[in-house]
Design goal:
By secondary structure, the chain is of the alpha/beta class. The chain has a domain of 256 residues. The protein is built from 15 helices and eleven strands. The strands form two sheets. Strands 1-2-3-5-4-6-7-8-9 form a nine-stranded mixed β-sheet, sandwiched between helices. A two-stranded antiparallel ribbon has the order 10-11. Helix 14 runs antiparallel to helix 15.
Length: 462
């Protein structure tokens, strides 16, 4: 293996600090759900990698990497696990925290994680997560210097091995001297990353996974179809300073496949926006790959933005004002379904269902129906029984607008002509939601919640 042979040191659980809670902690009452929330520090020596001389960093994703030096690091793991070991399903999801916002972003509100018995490990993997970005530094060290002032990642070149070491620290063969998993019988470790972090995971799959055995599966969510460089030196992720001359659309365009010889399950789950980005690098479903695309959705939704805002308000972060008119079909229900299927794929060898792809014209434009909604792809009930045109079509070419897509509500006359009265609409909506359950893209627990949301949306339009 090419990752550091030195076992990292784990300390914790960590408490105290200015706020008394971990940055980005779940907004859910995790104790009422039968879970513990613990934070640990992990430190050691991380390896950085470079492309092997003479090898091709090509479209096929069969990339070759080798060690190129090492440096000390210290970072944190935020861990959620069932209090009762009998509730643990054996699968740990290790999340590569996204730092596009200038601080750690990660999901700790998944019903499937807590009701399905998973453990969730959220890893601060990149330099920005600790140091933040100017002019408002909101990384861990500035947010709570009492708690996090000792943390340090020398640069993103080391992030791949930091992530590997975090996975090994919670895996089946982990050091038990200070066990962050409290003795749980871990059988599978799954890497998960969304957006920027999915790009990091793509490079991990293509270049690092052949050198390590830290993960049993990979989940890439809202993935734009291109891996990130292995070597960036002192450069850090900053969405506000794109590469010179790069248009927004070109920045969000797929460039490489995911390598097909890793031999472990890889699950890609994309909104309509990333389906557009990935069109040129789509891959067929196989024994080890599932590629899901969802019609009518976008990278960010009104609902996900609202949840983020609640957390930002609690953690006293400076954020952008909420945009109006964002897409209103959230991707979160699909992420829960993916967790469920990945666990069964690994544990019971039950392959996830293959889903239809979003349809495109010969000019690589999304095919849209008479309501402006994408044709094909996974059909959540909000797309099949629409009260609005939800799509990836942006309200402007600003990068944040592109990520948010749009939602244009239908008028009352149109929704009545399409659906009849409220009760007729809700009956058809429930049927569509149940069809999504039967297709394997929606967990049954989501149906009542979506029906209630649909009722409110109808009432708001009346």
């Amino acid at each position: 293996m090419a990752h550091s042979s030195e076992s990292p040191i784990v300390t914790g659980p960590i408490d105290g600090g200015q706020f008394g809670w971990p940055f980005g902690a779940s907004m859910l009452d995790t104790a009422a759900l039968g879970y513990r929330e613990d934070e640990f520090f992990i430190e050691g020596t991380a390896t950085k990698y470079r492309q092997v001389d003479g090898s091709e960093w090509g479209r096929d994703g069969h990339w070759q990497a080798e060690p190129a030096g090492s440096a000390p690091y210290k970072t944190r793991l935020l861990i959620y696990r069932p209090v009762d070991p009998e509730r643990f399903n054996g699968t740990v999801i290790v999340t590569w925290n996204n730092v596009t916002a200038g601080y750690d972003l990660f999901g700790t509100d998944s019903s499937e994680v807590f009701e399905g018995g998973f453990a969730l490990v959220c890893v601060t993997t990149q330099k920005v997560g600790i140091d933040g970005l100017p002019p408002v530094h909101q990384g861990l060290a500035a947010w709570d210097p009492q708690r996090y002032g000792s943390l340090s990642i020398p640069g993103d070149d080391y992030s791949f091995d930091v992530f590997t070491q975090a996975a090994l620290a919670v895996g089946a063969n982990r050091d038990r001297s200070n066990d962050p998993m409290s003795g749980l019988d871990v059988r599978h470790v799954v890497a998960q990353g969304a957006s920027q972090s999915a790009g990091r995971l793509a490079t991990y799959v293509n270049a690092i996974a052949p050198l390590t055995s830290a993960f049993d599966g990979f989940i890439l969510a809202i993935y734009f179809g291109r891996g990130t460089p292995l070597e960036v030196g002192d450069t850090v992720v900053n969405i506000k300073t794109p590469a010179s001359g790069a248009s927004t659309r070109n920045r969000l365009r797929g460039a490489n496949l995911l390598r097909d010889d890793v031999g472990i399950p890889i699950f890609v789950v994309n909104s309509e926006l990333e389906a557009i980005a990935c069109y040129g690098v789509r891959q067929p479903d196989s024994e080890t790959l599932r590629y899901w695309e969802s019609a009518g959705t976008c990278h960010v939704s009104q609902q996900s933005r609202a949840v983020r805002q609640e957390m930002s308000d609690r953690d006293q972060l400076v954020t952008r004002p909420a945009e109006q008119g964002l897409n209103a079909i959230p991707m979160n229900p699909l992420y829960d379904a993916v967790f469920y299927h990945m666990h069964r794929w690994l544990t019971d060898n039950i392959s996830p269902p293959i889903q239809p792809r979003v349809e495109f014209t010969v000019d690589e434009e999304v095919v849209r129906d008479e309501h402006g909604i994408a044709v094909g792809g996974i059909r959540l009930p909000q797309a099949d029984l629409p009260l609005a045109q939800n799509s990836s079509i942006p309200l402007s070419e600003d990068i944040y607008a592109v990520l948010g897509g749009s939602s244009h509500a239908f008028g009352q006359d149109k929704i009545v002509s399409l659906h009849g009265d409220l009760e007729a609409f809700l009956g058809k909506f429930q049927h569509a939601a149940q069809a999504a359950v039967e297709a394997g893209v929606l967990m049954p627990r989501e149906v009542p919640r979506l029906v209630a949301e649909a009722r409110k949306s109808w009432t708001d339009l009346s």
